[in-house]
Amino acid sequence: MRKLWATRSKWSLVMTALAIFSLSGYVVAVPPPPFNFGVHPFEFDPAQTKLVSAQWVNGAGCPTGATGFIDDPLTLFVFDPIPTPVTDPACLTGDAQDNNNKGLVLFKTGPTANVAASGAFLTFNQQAFTLTEMGYDTRSGSHCGAGAPRFNVRTSDGVLHFVGCNTGTVISSSLGWKRLQWTAASLAISGVGQTAFPPILATDVVLSISIIFDEGQDASGGPDSSGMAVLDNINVNGVRVGKP
After folding, report:
1. Does domain 37-62+89-241 have CATH number 2.60.120?
2. pTM, to two decimals
3. Under 8 Å CB-to-CB from 111, ≥6 apart: which residues?
């Protein structure tokens, strides 16, 4: 009985202290969660042409810390595959939460003029922020034009900014992949070397970002006219996301 009374007394003292602390006007500052976001594929196809597609596909991404099953080259004339680490030189870092090596596969089949597009919405855990960098990995053979794939960035002043694939800087590459990056400095350039249209200043507050793929299999989708792009490790402010 004495132990129960002592426990209740301690609890009462704690609650009283909290009440006094609250009434005194002090506010406990809770740090915001680390910056993060999700990448959600979508298809814009109002006429139901069925000529666009967007989805995360297992095994289509740039491998970082994957494991292959590869024949041992030291044992000739013997087929004895062994677990072998697989990391592409273009993506030495990636999304540690992506356990299925997913890639964001975007298609637009047929003419660019078709009113349809594939892409992805980015959803953030912060309502507004400024940009320090953006980017993604793009697989060899993917279309990388002035207009697609592109980032659409809407800022708090109501302006919609376009950032086309072919304005990115390649910071690492391999036979299979290249990693593109846009820094805050490059996004703010106006004129020669401009990457964002209109430029995105370091002080501009971002409200939303999406990825749009709307160039097809014709001259407007050149020079490759593949109507296809495979992206991975979507990067905003140094955070890379490689899964839904």
Report:
1. yes
2. 0.86
3. 216, 217, 218, 220
Strands (E), 159-225: 160-164, 169-173, 177-183, 196-197, 206-213
In the numeric block, which tokens belong to residue 15? Answer: 């609650």
Residue 128 corresponds to which amino acid? A
DSSP reduced 3-state for 166: helix
Structure tokens at 52: 């666009």
Q: pLDDT truncated to tens, each residue of the chain (244 aa)?
A: 444 344 444 445 444 444 444 444 555 667 778 999 999 999 999 999 999 999 999 999 999 999 999 988 888 888 888 899 999 999 999 999 999 999 999 999 999 999 999 999 999 999 999 999 999 999 999 999 999 999 999 999 999 999 999 999 999 999 999 999 999 999 999 999 999 999 999 999 999 999 999 999 999 999 999 999 999 999 999 999 999 9
